[in-house]
Amino acid sequence: MITHPKTEELAQSVALWIEQIRPSLDPRNAFLARVAANAMATIGREITQGPAAEAEAVRLMGDLLGHAGTHTELNTELCARIRSGEMTVGTPGLLTALTTIARNQIAIDQPSYKAEGSL
Fold first, then answer.
1. What pLDDT was estimated at residue 8?
2. d(CA 42, CA 47)
3. pLDDT in tens, the chain (119 residues)
4. Helix boundaries (H) for 22-111
5. Residue 49 contacts residue 41 (beta carbons within 8 Å)
6. Domain boundaries, the chain
């Protein structure tokens, strides 16, 4: 049976290759190569961690709003309720949900980020 590399494995391979050739590049292209390698790493994390992060966000937003929906629908409604003042920092569970959603996204976008007070 033929097995193909998974998408996240391909992204990781490209990122590693870019990092291998980067030291031989002129400064401008070395910088652009670093940006490309970082983008490939983000793609890999989005593929592996993104579905679980989105599912948790949908669950948290659905719990806050009291109904189910897609990520886009729930996010749009939640943002509208926050903007209108209907939901505030005093809304039970809002800050906890937003913190969890933000941390999950940061883990994908900037995994080396350390929040204030974290070890």
1. 87
2. 9
3. 778 888 888 988 999 999 999 999 999 999 999 999 999 999 999 999 999 999 999 999 999 999 999 999 999 999 999 999 999 999 999 999 999 999 999 999 998 988 776 65
4. 27-65, 71-84, 94-109
5. no
6. 7-109
- Cβ atoms of 108 and 53 within 8 Å: the answer is yes
pTM of the model: 0.80
Measured CA to CA, the distance from residue 48 to residue 111 in angstroms comes to 13
* CA atoms lying within 13 Å on the CB side of residue 95: 5
Q: How many other β-carbons are positioned within 10 Å of the β-carbon of residue 106?
A: 14
22 contacts 37 by C-beta, under 8 angstroms: yes
| DSSP 8-state class, residue 66 | T
* DSSP letter (8 states) at residue 23: G
Question: Do 78 and 94 touch, CB atoms closer than 8 A?
Answer: no
Of 77, 49, 48, give the one whose Cα is nearest residue 61.
77
Both tokens assigned to 60: 């948290």
Residue with tokens 């998974």: 6
